[in-house]
From TrEMBL:
<dbReference type="InterPro" id="IPR049444">
    <property type="entry name" value="TetR_C_44"/>
</dbReference>
<dbReference type="Pfam" id="PF21776">
    <property type="entry name" value="TetR_C_44"/>
</dbReference>
<protein>
    <submittedName>
        <fullName>Regulatory protein TetR</fullName>
    </submittedName>
</protein>
<keyword id="KW-0805">Transcription regulation</keyword>
<dbReference type="InterPro" id="IPR023772">
    <property type="entry name" value="DNA-bd_HTH_TetR-type_CS"/>
</dbReference>
<dbReference type="GO" id="GO:0003700">
    <property type="term" value="F:DNA-binding transcription factor activity"/>
</dbReference>
<dbReference type="InterPro" id="IPR001647">
    <property type="entry name" value="HTH_TetR"/>
</dbReference>
<feature type="DNA-binding region" description="H-T-H motif">
    <location>
        <begin position="37"/>
        <end position="56"/>
    </location>
</feature>
<feature type="domain" description="HTH tetR-type">
    <location>
        <begin position="14"/>
        <end position="74"/>
    </location>
</feature>
<keyword id="KW-0238">DNA-binding</keyword>
<dbReference type="GO" id="GO:0000976">
    <property type="term" value="F:transcription cis-regulatory region binding"/>
</dbReference>
<dbReference type="InterPro" id="IPR009057">
    <property type="entry name" value="Homeodomain-like_sf"/>
</dbReference>
<keyword id="KW-0804">Transcription</keyword>
<dbReference type="Pfam" id="PF00440">
    <property type="entry name" value="TetR_N"/>
</dbReference>
<dbReference type="InterPro" id="IPR050109">
    <property type="entry name" value="HTH-type_TetR-like_transc_reg"/>
</dbReference>
Length: 206
């Protein structure tokens, strides 16, 4: 039996998914995440609501699909800096700079995603899917701090990366560009420094 050429079919699926994804992001940015329904997205993308759910199990999944490539690029950047011999504290600063810039730029998308992650009815599977990509990057930095002997004896790398993640989520929830006197980065570093106080070894002159 002659094999069927499925490439046009796969291309059509990919194009439809990309159209739904692009339309959803535009609606979120124009009208707000919470004000936009899956029916709004389906109608604007000229598909049925069932077709939307075929490609994305939820509105939050649309945002996840948007941020995951950004986090993948961030991980490659962090690993490259460490490979080049950049000191882990400086890598942490670079990570904070990049994540903060993206969080300010994509606030209309990231803030609702964090709200969904922290919602009491959010499932564990969704929480892991939403937080694991960034958590994996934070683990890389925490492991580097540990390998350089920059963590105190009683502190594990996972405790440090968890503190980094918690401080980030707290900052996303609390920071408002219209009312905050601090930039997102400065607000995050303030929260992070408080959570990491006592976890990092300080240089003798500190």
């Amino acid at each position: 039996m002659r094999d069927l050429d499925v490439s046009p079919y796969r291309a059509a699926i990919s194009q439809r998914r990309e159209r739904i994804h692009r339309v959803a992001l535009n609606l979120f940015q124009q009208f707000g995440y919470h004000a936009t329904t899956t029916l709004d997205i389906a109608r604007a993308a000229y598909v049925s609501r069932g077709t939307f759910y075929k490609y994305f199990p939820s509105k939050a999944a649309v945002i996840l699909a948007h941020v995951q490539p950004l986090i993948a690029d961030l991980r490659r950047h962090v690993e490259r800096l460490l490979h080049e011999g950049v000191a882990p504290p400086d890598v942490l600063d670079a990570l904070c700079n990049q994540v903060s810039a993206a969080s300010e730029r994509e606030r209309t998308l990231i803030a609702p995603l964090v709200q969904e992650v922290l919602a009491t009815d959010a499932g564990d599977t969704f929480r892991r899917a939403a937080t694991s990509p960034l958590m994996n990057v934070l683990n890389v930095v925490a492991d580097a701090l540990h390998e350089r002997g920059l963590l105190r004896e009683h502190v594990s790398p996972r405790q440090v990366s968890t503190a980094m993640m918690d401080s980030y989520l707290i900052t996303v929830l609390r920071w408002n560009p219209d009312t905050s006197a601090l930039s997102f980065r400065d607000a995050w570093r303030l929260n992070l420094d408080m959570l990491l106080h006592g976890a990092l070894r300080r240089p003798p002159h500190a």
